């Protein structure tokens, strides 16, 4: 795989930049999405010696910014890309599925996982993405992320405090004062939500829950990965993006007779 492809994942909260590596991807930069500028994107491209860029973005402003900032071949991930698995024929609007959800599944397959599989991406939102036993993407569920649990009461009540994700991570089930009580409910409510959704997915597919592998990625994944049979799998979206970029660059080289492509068809 060409290491000169810069991989950019722009989420609602953070941007992560990476390059392909022998064991998956290597992160080279993280920063809040609100702080992403054209200058920063250009600096990343120079720093990594990028000959091309592959982008997964759920933020339209971020997509537009990258397009305008770079004069390099650019692949923007979407549901129409060659992902390495099929989408179910009964999905009514496959073009509206978030590319991060699909790339997370692609990253799971790249790591050796196979269906039946649920990929949980525990970020700003917590998404549940379902691959059946035939490795067909069936859809999934989208729930509030951990930060939403933490922020809601502070935003909607007069006296309840805002608590940190660190407080939530170390909370037990019984809080001894207000902050601890909120942290307890956030932690165990978030974990319980995830487990309940996975159980419902298995039931809808007619599977014993133990037959359904669960991979967890994203910032809040440590809270979920200790469930029986659940496995932490860092950087799945970027790993999926690296696989997609590898196929794209190989196709581009083949079409151009081995020379650098002038432009990317998915730009």
Describe this structure in words.
By secondary structure, this protein is an alpha/beta fold. It has 2 domains: 5-80 and 238-255, 2-Layer Sandwich (Nucleotidyltransferase, domain 5); 114-232, 2-Layer Sandwich (Nucleotidyltransferase, domain 5). The chain has a 6-stranded mixed beta sheet, sandwiched between helices. The longest helix has 28 residues, at 178-205. The chain is 37% helix and 24% strand. The chain starts with a strand and ends in a 12-residue tail after the last helix. It has 8 helices and 11 strands. It has helices at residues 38-47, 60-69, 99-110, 146-156, 165-169, 178-205, 221-224, 236-255; strands at residues 5-10, 14-21, 24-32, 52-57, 74-76, 86-87, 117-122, 125-131, 136-144, 213-217, 230-232.
């Amino acid at each position: 795989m060409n290491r000169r492809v810069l991989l950019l994942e722009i989420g609602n909260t953070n941007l992560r930049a990476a390059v392909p590596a022998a064991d998956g991807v290597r992160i080279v930069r993280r920063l809040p999405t609100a702080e992403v500028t054209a200058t920063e994107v250009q600096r990343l491209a120079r720093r990594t010696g990028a000959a091309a860029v592959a982008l997964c973005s759920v933020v339209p402003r971020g997509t537009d910014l990258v397009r305008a900032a770079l004069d390099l071949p650019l692949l923007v991930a979407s549901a129409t890309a060659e992902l390495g698995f099929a989408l179910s024929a009964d999905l009514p609007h496959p073009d509206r599925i978030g590319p991060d959800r699909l790339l997370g599944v692609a990253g799971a397959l790249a790591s050796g996982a196979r269906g039946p599989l649920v990929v949980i991406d525990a970020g700003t939102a917590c998404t549940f993405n379902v691959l059946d036993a035939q490795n067909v993407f069936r859809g999934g569920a989208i729930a509030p992320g951990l930060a939403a649990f933490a922020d809601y009461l502070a935003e909607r009540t007069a006296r309840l405090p805002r608590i940190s994700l660190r407080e939530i991570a170390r909370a037990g089930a019984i809080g001894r004062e207000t902050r601890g009580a909120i942290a307890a409910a956030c932690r165990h409510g978030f974990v319980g939500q995830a487990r309940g959704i996975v159980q419902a997915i298995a039931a809808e597919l007619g599977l014993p829950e133990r037959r359904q592998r669960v991979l967890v990625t994203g910032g809040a994944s440590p809270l979920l990965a200790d469930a029986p049979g659940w496995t932490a799998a860092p950087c799945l979206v970027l790993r999926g993006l690296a696989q997609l970029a590898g196929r794209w660059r190989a196709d581009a080289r083949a079409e151009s007779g081995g020379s650098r492509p002038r432009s990317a068809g998915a730009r």
